[in-house]
Amino acid sequence: MRQRRATTVMALGLAQTLAWASSYYLPAMLAQPMARSLGLDAPDVFAAFSVALVVSALVGPRAGRMIDQQGGRRVLAGTSLLFASGLALMATSTGFTSLLLAWGVMGLAMGSGLYEAAFATLVRLHRLESRQMITGITLIAGFASTVGWPLSAWLSAQWGWREACWTWAALHVLVGLPLNLSLPRAEPAHDAAGPGPGSRPGDSGDSGEPATATEPGLGAVLALSFVFASTWFTSTAMAAHFPRLLQGFGIGVAGAVGIAALIGPSQVAARLFEFGFLRRVHPLLSARLATLAHPLGALGLLILGGPAGAAFGLLHGAGNGVLTIAKGTLPLVIFGAQGYGHRQGLLMLPARVAQAFAPWLFGLALDRWQGQALWLTAALGLLAFGTLMRLGRLQTTPPATSGP
User: Transmembrane region positions (predicted)?
Assistant: First the structure.
């Protein structure tokens, strides 16, 4: 059983690394060459990316319900083909309309094939026992930016941005699709009428509908939605503008890319700490600490300038790494496993909308205030921390500590 779970985590982790590297982290390196080639401005490319994020927000709840009902194997395999199709359309784009269509297809894939879908797949298979498996996936996929940014930049420099898109599309068909098809099949929902391992009291079956007895109230829903929206705004803004932001503090292009490459390892290091030292505490504690990491790093960069760039990258990556886990585990331990996929899609809908506007809004802030724009994301981090402190007064279930 442990070997089977480890194999599942490895397959999902590698597939997620590919999915994130070729979608979420793509514009940071390819937006400029895309814009030049298509006769567009760089903000036009980010606008198309924002459309993809809006599409993903709308698709998320439906994809989550499908995973609740039938498991994630078929859904995730389908997203491999969607990613490949979107990237192929992107590679053949001739203008803004065709680029917008390509990113629209990418949005369908992102809404049904990124972390929320992977987490829901695990919860559908293992219910509350999946907490540490969720951490395992994020440990592997935490290297998506470390792999994606340099590889996209290298492919674009060597052969062009179109060839970079074709390469990512081929990887989804040759690597991502087999990985997702290797996932275990979930039992049909009607065959899982009884509570699964680690279910909360009141959970019954896998119909996809939340059990009334497990709902802690509207306050918890709104609190989590705000925390996810604010932190995803920051993570998306940084993913789109991190090198440019650092250059505003006098750091050269090579230095900015080098510091950006630290984000992936710092995410993984923080997740290892969460997995090893914080595994038996409620995820609220690690989430609170994580929301403070970006504001602390931003304060250091704002006060000390360029010399604090590496520390900022490490702190931002560490906080973002743990918050990614919290987005999967907090809804699980607060609401239970019943209907997890659909509920996760609903909770993340505001976050996806915030993501959609983050590249554009933070780009405007950078244009107007340069590095001082960091005050915006630092304030959002502090507000998220305060919200999580209040959430701690709401009733939650004990954390699940068993795992693979």
Answer: 45-63, 75-94, 100-122, 134-154, 218-239, 245-264, 285-304, 310-334, 372-391
